[in-house]
Amino acid sequence: MVGANLKTFHLKALQLLIVATIGLPASNLLGANHTIKIKRQANATVAKNADQDFPTDPFVRRQVRFWEAVFQKYQSSSVIIHDLTDPLVMIDVINFDHYITNDGNVTSVASSEQTNLVKNYISRYDVAVERFVKLKEAAVKFGPIEQRIFDVYSKDPSTLARLYNGNIKFRGQGGLADTFIAAATRAQEFMPYMEKAFRQYGLPVTLTRLPFVESMFNLQAKSKVGASGIWQFMPDTAREYMYVGSLVDERNNPYKATHAAAQLFLENYRGLNSWPLAITAYNHGRGGMSKAAKELGTKQLGSIINNYKSSSFGFASKNFYAEFLAAARTYELLTATGLVKLKKNQTSPDIISLSKPMTMRNISKVTLLSPDSIAKLNPCLTASITTTKIDQPLPQSYEIRLPMREGALLRRSLPIVRISKSASQTVRR
Q1: How far from the centroid of its chain's Cα atoms is residue 303's Cα?
Q2: Residue 271 in contact with residue 288, Cβ under 8 Å?
Q3: Residue 225 scores a pLDDT above 80
Q4: Residue ranges of domains in the chain, CATH in brackets
Q5: How would DSSP label each residue in 319-381?
Q6: What's the pLDDT tens digit per position in 285-295?
Q7: CA-CA 20 to 30 A from 309: which of 157, 169, 384, 427?
Q8: Contact 92, 121 (CB under 8 A)
Q9: pTM tops 0.90, yes or no
Q10: Separation between Cα atoms, residue 184 and residue 129, nearest integer Å
C-alpha cells in the first residue's frame, strides 16, 4: 500500500518548505540558482499599478502570490506540493535536479519519472490526511510528514477544521521561473504589435500578457482538447473570428489571433461588466461565468471561486485570473529589472493579400524560398501545405508574410501566375 513504508518517501528528498497561511517564506530553500531575484520595491510598484485596472479580493490576492512564486522563484526542475483549494498553502518542494535517494546519493530525476514520483508523494500526504480525520492531533505520532501538515494547517482554526474533516486535497505544480524568462524573450517578437492592437480596440494592454498563461508564447502550442496557438483558441470559437481550415489555421498566426482575442475580450467585458469575470470567461466561457454570477448573486470572483459548484469550474478556471495577474506582474518585473530586454525595433515583413488562389509550389517558385521557409514565416499554414497539399491553393485574400525582397517578387508576379486546373478547386475548411 502506498505510504506504508516511510523509507519509500525519503524525507531528505523533499526540500522542506513550511509556510503559514499568511504568506511566503523569506528564503527559498531550493537555493539561489532556483530563483529570480527581484527588488521588493519594484514588485510592490508593479502590483499596485496592476490592481488599478484589475481589482482583486483577499482570496484572489493569495492566489496571485502563489503564482508569482511559481513564475518568479521556482524553476522547471522543481515541483511544489500545495493545497488544491488554497494554493498559497505550500507543504513541500521537490527538487529533481538535486534529488536525494534512499541511500543518500544526490542525483537528478528524468522527466519521464517525475510525474509518477509526484503522484507517490501526494498519495503519501493523502494517507496523512486520513490519519488526521481519524485521530485528529494525535496523528502527528506517525512521523515528520504528519507533523509538517499539522504545523501548516494548525495556524488557523478554519484550515485546521478542514484538515480534521478531511477536506484537503493536494496538487503538484511545476516551477516556471526559467520557462517564463525564455517565454518573455520570445514574446518580444510579438508584444509591440499586440500592445498596439489592443490599444486600437480600447483595451488595457496588460491583457496581452495572457499568452504567458495559455502557451508561454509557444507558437506550436496545442492542447489535448484541441486548442491551438499562443492564444489557445478552440476551433469553434476561433471560427467566429478567423479562418480555420485544412491548409490555413489562423489560430497559429499570432497577429490574426491577437485581433481575435481582443474582440473576444471586448465581448466578454460587455457581457459581464467585470474584468475578473471577463478574463476568467476566456477559460470558462462567458455563459459559464454569467451563470455563476447570477446563481450566487455576486460578481466578486473570490466568492464565486469558493462557492460556485460546477464540474467544469475546476482548478484551472478558479486560478485563471490570478495566474494572469501574476504573469503580468512577472513580465513587467523582468523588463523593468533588465532580465528581459524590450525589443523596440522590429523588422516588418511584407504582407501580401493574395488577389487569387495560389499554391505553395507557385509561391515557392516565384519567391525562390523553400516551402519550409515560407511555412516558418507563416505558422498558420498547416504542415500538409509543404507536402501532400503543396499543389492545393491557398484561399483568395489570404495574407501571406514574406521578407521584403521576396514579397516584392510575389507582388510583381501575381497578375501572371497560373494555377493548374487540378489545383483550382475550392479550399476545404
Answers
A1: 23
A2: no
A3: yes
A4: 6-35+73-175 (no CATH), 180-336 (1.10.530.10), 350-423 (no CATH)
A5: HHHHHHHHHHHHHHHHHHTTSS-------PPEEEE-SS-EEHHHHHHHH---HHHHHHH-TTB
A6: 999 999 999 99
A7: 157
A8: yes
A9: no
A10: 39
Q: In angstroms, rounded to a whole number, what is the distance separating the alpha carbons of residues 244 and 284? A: 22
Cα-based angle 323, 237, 198 (whole degrees, multiple of 5): 55
Neighbours of 231 (CB within 10 A): 25
* Dihedral of the alpha carbons of 92, 95, 101, 102, in degrees to the nearest 10: 0
Q: DSSP label at 91? A: E
* Residues, the chain: 429
Name the nearest CA neighbour of 401 among 384, 415, 382, 380.
380
| DSSP class of 246 | S
CB atoms within 10 A of CB 7: 7
* pLDDT (tens digit per residue) in 11-44: 233 333 222 222 322 222 333 333 444 444 455 5
Is residue 82 within 8 Å of 170, Cβ to Cβ? yes
How close are the terminal C-alpha atoms of the chain, in Å? 52
Cell digits of residue 168: 484537503
C-alpha cell at 242: 478567423
d(CA 409, CA 400): 13
Provide the 3-class DSSP secondary structure of residue 302.
Answer: helix
Q: Measure the CA–CA gap between 170 and 236, rounded to whole angstroms.
A: 34
Centre a 10 Å sphere on the Cβ of residue 428 and count the other Cβ atoms it contains: 8
Using alpha carbons, select from 242, 324, 251, 247 the residue that is nearest to residue 281: 324
* Pair 311, 196: CB distance under 8 Å: no
Lookup result for grid cell 490555413: 248
Distance CA 232, CA 214 (A): 6
Cell of 159: 484550515
Q: pLDDT tens, 271-321?
A: 999 999 999 999 999 999 999 999 999 999 999 999 999 999 999 999 999
Residue with cell 502527528: 140
DSSP 28: -
Helix 286-296 × helix 275-284 angle, to 10°: 130
